[in-house]
Amino acid sequence: MSSPSPALIHLQGITRSFQNGEHTLQVLKGIDLTIQAGEFVALIGSSGSGKSTLMNLLGCLDRPTEGEYWFRGQATSQLDADARAALRREAFGFIFQSYHLLPGTPAVNNVELPAIYAGLRPQERHARALALLTQLGLADRADHRPNQLSGGQQQRVSIARALMNGGQVILADEPTGALDSQSGREVLQLLQDLSAQGHTILLITHDPQIAAHADRIIEMRDGLLIRDQATGSPQRSTTQKKAANIPLAAQPPRPAQPWLDLWEAFKAALTALHRHLFRTLLTLLGIVIGVASVIAMLAIGDGARYEVVDRISAMGSNLLLIRPGAPNQRGRWPATLVPEDVEAINAQIPHLIAAIPELSRSMTLRYGNQDHTSEVNATSAAFPLARQWPVAQGTFFSQEDEAQLATVAVLGQTVAETLFADRSPLGEYLLLDGTLLQVIGVMSPRGASPMGQDQDDVIFVPFSTGSVRLFGQRHLRNVTVAVADIEQIEQVHQAIFELLLARHGVEDFQIRNMASLIDSVTETQNTFTLLLGSVAAISLLVGGVGVMNIMLVSVTERTREIGIRLATGARAKHILQQFLIEALAISALGGLIGVACGLGTAWLVGYLGTPVYFSTPPVMLAFGCAFATGLIFGYLPARKAAHLDPVRALATE
Ligand code: ADP
Ligand code: MG
Q1: How many other C-beta atoms can be found within 10 angstroms of the C-beta atom of residue 364?
Q2: N or C: which end of the chain has fewer CB within 10 A?
Q3: Ligand 1 binding pocket mutation candidate from 23, 24, 46, 52 (most atoms within 8 A of CB)
Q4: Whole-prediction pTM value?
């Protein structure tokens, strides 16, 4: 079109066919039509002649199969989906026979809908919606929901909605079809008023009397225009401009307002979730259980790991343990380690606190008439230093005691308590396999070993005393080496290995490093934690599938709502955003509640005595997973919603 002022609407050779399986049904069969701005056109024709199909094309809800539609001189075939949405939003106002209001939503919010997508600020939007409702005589019905309104009132709400963004072109598809004659007359009057104010009106009706009120009547039959005539109706000129002036609003500028968009989508999401509260709660429950179990499981798994590591480190992570026997040898202790090996290590290896020999055996102690069986450990004076295990009462034996084969003993807490109860054992004598030993000290309590044995059920004697007087054996069961600087534990390990290899000629000993023992235990425990964690993660996944399920149901159920939103100018992006935000809102809320429940459960488990360990990463991980779950599982349904065909969506019930 190159004329200086193009027609508002110009159609040329428009056809529209529907593919129905093998059959192609041609509904519009080549329509040429021009409508000037400000015209009031009535479109009549028998049912099924293609009127609604034509109107959907005019309103950019649908696209022609062939032919071209120029709107204000712009070929609409050149417009993309967003540009067509913009036209629906800014130029057209739809009025349907069945009103198509959002169910459960107050009238005023229904009226506001197109302005949300036009980016009008909330206060302005609300004020304008109220003003429109007031002008249409519905001031006292603004907060009523559609099911609380009569048909005529609902239709007036939908007219207010059509005018919300200006509604330069009003497309009314049998707006009076479902109304009683009185309400029908009122609606017709409103349309005439709007026409008088300069709105362009296309009114579909099959009532010739109503059509007679228009300036021009177009008749369709079987997909073709068969009549197009001016009525010469006097109505137009005599119309009282009694309806107040609803300004043909200059389009509100639409600055980029992503936050406002998001906020609106968030509010719509909350409303939708609230409407199906029970369903929302059940979906929420899935996510809550998933997140809570991930957090609780990881806290318990980590708790178990740290406890084992703590117990091992309590023994001293700076220790090297040397045992007799080749690395893969099993069975009784071979007699390969001797006290001279310990002396050599103490003399030749640097960076040591001490190397101490240990030779132990279970024996029965007698004090007075009491017997007690305990572990007797023959070791050196450096034991408390090397094992970082101080004496609580009295003293440990000295190197002199060792040299003199002194008959002295130091008791572990359990032995002291069992044999002496509240009395001080210091200075008392114990009989041990025919040898009398004098108690010179009591060790501080040590608790259970990593394997769960009572480390305090022990008595210590000088190595020489034990080996010569008690056991009659000088081969060692164990040498403990305490390294001064844990950084050097590897070098010391290597140096001792070389020294012993040189002394023995063969590798008939094993050296174990506590640090590496901790590493391997940690690894085992990590596997355990991972196992717990993955079981929990699966439940989170199941929760995610629940979200997807519910969103798919929701999309199917709310197809008509999506159609209404699209018809009032929502872009695919808005619909995508809204459904995605619904999924995210469920997941995030479920995540938060799940975090609280998970921490609560872990706390309770800890309170009941099982070790738990709280740390931030599992919480972040679980919440992050819940959020990602919402995003991933919400995306497909949201995309499905966003790509619905507006006409079909509107047609669903
Ligand atoms: P009117 O509004 O004049 O009563 P419509 O435009 O709604 O008629 O429909 C005209 C014809 O097109 C009808 O026969 C209808 O069955 C058919 N039709 C409309 N929409 C579709 C569709 N989406 N798929 C298949 N056929 C359709
Ligand atoms: Mg129809």
Answers
A1: 12
A2: C
A3: 52
A4: 0.70
